Amino acid sequence: VIFRRAKRFRPFGAGARGTIAAIVATFALVSLISAGLSIWTTSHSRNRAAVVEMAARQRTLAERYVADLLLVQRGAQADPVHVGSLIQQSAHALLDGGTAPAVEGDDDETLLHREANPVVRAQLVEEERLAADLAASGRAYLEGQPLSSVKLTAGEHLADASPIQRIRILAALTSNVSLNAARTIAAQDDQNISNLIMLQVSLGAIGLACSLLLAWALIFATRRQSAHFRSLVMASTDLVLVLDGSGCRHASASVTTMLARPETELLGKRIFDHVHPDDRPLLELACQGGGARTFVFRLRNALGRWRHLEAHQTDLRTDKHIRGVVLNARDITDRVKLEHELTLQAQRDTFGSQLGEALEMADEENATFRVVERAMVEISAEAPMELLLADASRAHLERVAKSPTADAPGCPVESPFACVAVRRANPVVFESSEALNACPKLRDRPGGPCSAVCVPISFMGRSLGVLHATGPEKEPLVAERVSQLTTLATQAAARIGTVRAFEKTQLQAATDALTGLINRRTLEMHLRTMIRQGARFAVAIGDLDHFKQLNDKHGHEAGDRSLRVFAQLLQQSLRDADLVARWGGEEFVVVLPGLDREQAVTALQRFREELAGAHSGGNPPFTASFGVTDSAAGETIEELLGLADSGLYLAKRAGRDRIMLGEPSSDAARVQTPDTERPSPAAWRSRPALQQVAGEDDPQLGGLELRY
Amino acid sequence: MSSLRRITALVACALAPLAAIAASSALGSGASHTVTATERDFAISLPHVIPAGTVDIRVTNRGPDQHELIAVRAAKGALPLRHDGLTVSEEALAKAEVGALEPGKPGETRDLKVILTPGRYVFFCNMSGHFMAGMHTTVVVK
Q1: Which residue of chain B has the CA closest to A167?
Q2: Which of A129-133, A407-411, A678-682, B93-97 has the least mean pLDDT?
Q3: DSSP state of B88
Q4: What residues contact A81, with CB distance under 8 A and at least 6 apart?
Q5: What is chain B's mean pLDDT, rounded?
Q6: How many beta carbons lie within 10 A of that of residue A72, not counting itself?
Q7: Does A9 have pLDDT greater than 60?
Q8: Among A28, A201, A692, B43, whose Cα sits 20 to 30 Å from the Cα of A666?
Q9: Residue ranges of the alpha helices (H) in A534-636?
Q10: Model confidence over A241-291: pLDDT tens digits?
Q11: B chain contacts of residue A190, beta-carbon cutoff 8 Å
Q12: Which residue, among A227, A213, A226, has the nearest Cα to A21 in the 3D structure?
């Protein structure tokens, strides 16, 4: 719409052009008339001056005429007739135009125009008549004729006078009327000049009026034009600032609207009060002009918020209509904010992923805590932080990690549920420890008032503890730091939970749930290590005698109890270094490092005695049999366990409740005497291991395999 | 010269009503009457007899020359002339003069207010030679 309007818009439209042309034409006409009048009046006045001079000359001539007459009468040399004719010719020329004769020695011939003014004309007619009367009287006087015979033509009555007196009167009348004619002309000229002055003044006034009209028309047209462009500029969302050496000279309405400040607050050097201190040099540089360039600066609005402006600078100081540096700017605050958020998000993501990788490498809780400590420094090296975790009872919180650079804030909270963040299961930010709604545990800290952030740590819905950070009062960690803390809390919780679950699973996998002893797999692992290291040791396999009957007779409860008593006693009676494992069912394997089979028999014998004396309470008494061998008897686990098992077989065969050394030859006998009460220790092993072992080392055991 | 004369005329015009008021108040209830006079080259025509009192003489110059109108109370014999022998000596007649109009243009009509007591008066134009050329008349005021 604006463009279409702009195309149609013509500041000097047809109407305005016509007006201006009319005004200019009138002005020109008035000037022409004025100039013409001046020229005409001047030339006319010059002519009139000649007339006046000629009329005035008549007086001199009239007097000279009288004098000449008297001189002639006294016989002197004079020519009154000539003077008389000069007077008459001059009078005629004054009246009807023509050449007024020269008076010898005085002046030259003068060309006169015919007199047009009727009043002057009547006077000149009178003069001509009086001149004729004067000349006639003079002639009569010279000729000696009586003057009364001269016919007077101009209305004068010259009774009772001497001839020369009559001539003097006529001369006086002639000169008088001539002078009066000259006066009339002069008065008329005066009138003409004042008329001309009046006319010139009027014309000047008309000219002035025309000029004013023209100025008005031009101002109107210019206003229309500037109003049009102003509308365009005002409607534009572009922010326009005009700068010069003295600061800001103009700020567009869009700027004042955006900042909610009046233009006066932005003019001159005052604009710098609202420019971000870091950006002031940029704007000062812009004030100095220079080539076109684009930069971003910040202006504070009336609410105290920074608006980011992307400004394009154009140096128009040489443009006489601008005489400044023009900044066309756009408000890019939203874009900057978005970019900032994206950057933070990216940082968080980086932090999150790095933290995730670091935690993944922590395979136990303590390692996890060290990662947490390093992450604390990443978040803020200055803010005191600590990680408080609930102990096994989940009743007490203890500090497991603290910021290595800023130490621990030292929250005195003792139990998880005394912590408000844990109760709410959400991060809590406290602006000030002194606020009414602040956590009471923040008060009276040694460091004085502070702000705090508390992020609960939970795994699978179970609260594990709290991540706690403090900062200066009223200046809590900024949102992105809190967000990083939350990330840390979430990831650390997940890792701690995972490590704990893993450790528990590992423990479960390594031990026997009923007796708490290590299981077969764990024992095999130890044995393998010992064999590989070439350690000396004895191995024994033992089991509870008549366990099936005990189970059948007293129930599985009693059976389990008997197994636990057996395991406990066995562990107690042996050395700490000895390994006792439940092999399966009522069968146990004992490894005694550093002992040979005789020493092992002695140790187990002691145990059997203790077992015999330990039966008490409701537990049915039972006995145990052992088969023993040592590392010197074989090179593989299977070999050694096979030997020990053969000893046990021998012991069973010999009547139970005894210890027998394993013998390789006894294997055949064992195969021939099926004992279905329990599976062979070897048969507990996993099938692939058995197959491999059977195939390579012990073809005899292949028979066992066949039996299953 | 001419501007000075115009200023004089303007002052006279401005002062004329004041003079009239002053004159009429001085005269009390004495009614004035108007007398028409005509001037031409070279004669003055006025009624021969004029009633006494305040007389408003409305004089028209029929031209073609300019003319004055001077009124003097007549004494015995002719009016005294100046040494030039061409004009009346107004200086000698200062006490006898009852009114005077400066030279008027042809075609102009002017008023000369005079207070005339019974007696003989001479009205004349004293421009150079005009009196001598016959421009005077004698009036009897009764």
Answers
A1: B129
A2: A678-682
A3: B
A4: A138, A139, A142
A5: 81
A6: 17
A7: no
A8: A692
A9: 547-573, 597-614
A10: 888 888 888 888 888 888 888 888 888 899 999 999 999 998 888 888 888
A11: 2-3
A12: A213
Distance in angstroms (rounded) separating the CA atoms of residues A292 and A63 = 95
Lowest mean pLDDT across A336-345, A390-399, B80-89:
A390-399
Q: How far apart, in Å, do the first and last CA atoms of chain A sit? A: 97
CB proximity list for A184: less than 8 A, separation 6 or greater: A117, A119, A120, A123, B66, B105
Question: Torsion angle, CA of A37/A42/A48/A50, rounded to 10 degrees?
Answer: -160
The residue behind tokens 């408003």 is B56
A699 has pLDDT over 70 = no
Place of tokens 């979430």: A490
Minimal CA–CA distance to B62: which of A53, A522, A123?
A123
Do A177 and B64 lie within an 8 Å CB cutoff? yes
Q: Against a cut of 0.80, is the pTM above it?
A: no
Task: For residue A189, give the chain B residue with the closest CA.
Answer: B2
Q: Is the pLDDT of residue A695 over 70?
A: no
CA angle A268, A272, A275 (to 5 degrees): 140
pLDDT (tens digit per residue) in B53-80? 999 999 999 878 889 999 999 888 888 8
Q: Report d(CA B113, CA B111) in Å as an integer.
A: 6
B2, B105, B133: residue with CB nearest A156:
B133
CA dihedral A22, A24, A26, A30 (to 10 degrees): 180
Distance CA A229, CA A218 (A): 16
A123 interaction partners in chain B (CB closer than 8 Å): 63-65, 106
Element (H, E) at A284: helix A280-287
Contact present, A241 and A256 (Cβ < 8 Å): no
Mean pLDDT of chain A: 83
Residue burial A679-693, b: 16+ Cβ < 10 Å; e: rest: ebbbeebeeeebeeb
Q: At what angle do helices A333-361 and A365-379 cross, to 10 degrees?
A: 160
Residues of A in contact with B129 (CB under 8 A): 168-173, 176
Q: Which of B64, B105, B134 sits opposite A125 (nearest CB)?
A: B64
Q: Compute the average pLDDT of residues A627-642.
A: 90
Q: Which residues, at least 6 apart from A419, have a Cβ–Cβ distance to it below 8 Å?
A: A388, A397, A411, A413, A441, A454, A456, A466
Nearest to A631 by CA among A534, A525, A701, A524: A534
pLDDT digits (tens, 9 = 90+) for A175-206: 988 888 888 888 887 887 888 888 888 888 88
Strand order through the sheet with A659-661: A518-519, A579-584, A587-593, A537-544, A624-630, A659-661
Nearest to A138 by CA among A92, A87, A77, A75: A87
Return all residues near A518 (Cβ < 8 A) that are at least 6 apart. A510, A511, A512, A526, A579, A580, A581, A582
Give residue ranges of A with CB < 8 Å to any B CB.
119, 122-123, 125-126, 154-159, 161, 165, 168-173, 175-177, 180, 183-184, 186-187, 190
CA angle A19, A23, A27 (to 5 degrees): 170
Indicate left, alpha or beta for A12 from its phi (over 0: left) and psi (-120 to 50: alpha): beta
Q: Return d(Cα A675, Cα A666) in angstroms, integer.
A: 14
CA-based max dimension of chain A: 222
Q: What are the chain B neighbours of A63 within 8 Å (beta carbons)? A: none
Angle between helices A80-96 and A163-235 (to 10 degrees): 30
Tokens of A388: 């408080």
Q: Which residues pair with A326 in a beta bridge?
A: A242, A314
- CB-CB contact of B15 with B21 (8 Å): no
SS3 per-residue string spanning A627-652: EEEEHHHCCCHHHHHHHHHHHHHHHH
Q: pLDDT digit string (tens) for B19-63?
A: 444 444 444 435 688 999 999 888 999 999 999 999 999 999 987
Judged against a pLDDT cut of 90, whether residue A590 lies above it is answered with: yes
